[in-house]
Write a structure and sequence with these properties.
The protein has six helices and five strands, in the order βαβααβαβαβα. It has 239 residues and is of the alpha/beta class. It has a five-stranded parallel β-sheet with strand order 2-1-3-4-5, sandwiched between helices. The longest helix has 19 residues, at 84-102.
Length: 239
């Protein structure tokens, strides 16, 4: 058993910090986490300011070749790369995989754009979804079984149970399904929601200002509690 302190923070809001509630909440989490654990294991990627390039034909060709070989660990992928285009794609991908594998917690700031996640986050998801990257090649067990995800979801409206747009939420179910498919336990995917975040800006939503304030207060409290938790022990490799 090892004590893995890594925190990978990903922001995907197109808005700058002062105008982004998701960024403010992920920043709060990161600040508390670093005060408690130090900064050695902290990694940050701003997916909007420094976008992950969309995957290309060379990426998919390399991925299919990996699958044809039954899946190989990331450290052996370079031996199957064919040509400069695939070499470029792997050079873009490998550091992102290393970020995830090194993290005990993946912290994601994701505003709702058109009922789902921002394209900047989706591009990161597409690229880290590389065949066999998170599977033990010898046992087939998921390497991320000991990893936690904290997803900070901000919405301009309300999408909870009983609201008129409950069925329009393709943000939270998508992230739960995606990380569950990577082998992360359902109980280790933590969702923090702040809703009605534009009630202060849009006149027709002014009547929801109190709801928005209550939702943000609850999200702030949840972030503080999660960021202050003691690190737990996890096995090497995350399982």
């Amino acid at each position: 058993m090892i004590d893995n302190p890594g925190l990978l923070r990903l922001d995907s809001s197109a808005s700058h910090h002062d105008g982004s509630i998701s960024r403010r909440l992920t920043s709060l989490y990161a600040d508390i986490w670093r005060e408690r654990h130090g900064g050695d294991g902290y990694r940050y990627r701003d997916l909007a300011a420094d976008p992950v390039p969309p995957i290309t034909h060379a990426y998919t060709a390399l991925g299919r070749r990996i699958e044809q070989h039954g899946g190989v660990p990331p450290e052996k992928v370079s031996g199957l790369v064919d040509g400069p285009d695939e070499e470029r794609e792997w050079a873009l991908t490998e550091p992102l995989l290393s970020d995830v594998l090194a993290a005990h917690t993946v912290l994601i700031g994701a505003p709702m754009y058109n009922f789902s996640v921002p394209a900047a986050l989706k591009a990161w998801i597409d690229r880290v979804s590389f065949p066999a990257a998170f599977t033990d090649p010898d046992t087939g067990t998921p390497l991320l079984a000991g990893t936690e995800v904290v997803a900070v979801l901000t919405r301009g409206g309300a999408y909870g149970p009983g609201t008129p747009r409950h069925g329009f939420d393709f943000q939270m179910p998508y992230l739960r399904a995606y990380f569950g498919n990577l082998g992360i336990r359902e109980t280790d995917v933590h969702i923090v929601r702040a809703e009605m975040t534009i009630a202060d800006l849009v006149p027709r939503l002014a009547r929801f200002k109190e709801m928005a304030a209550d939702s943000l207060t609850a999200a702030d409290a949840a972030i503080r509690e999660m960021a202050s938790r003691p690190r737990r022990k996890v096995r090497a490799g995350g399982v």
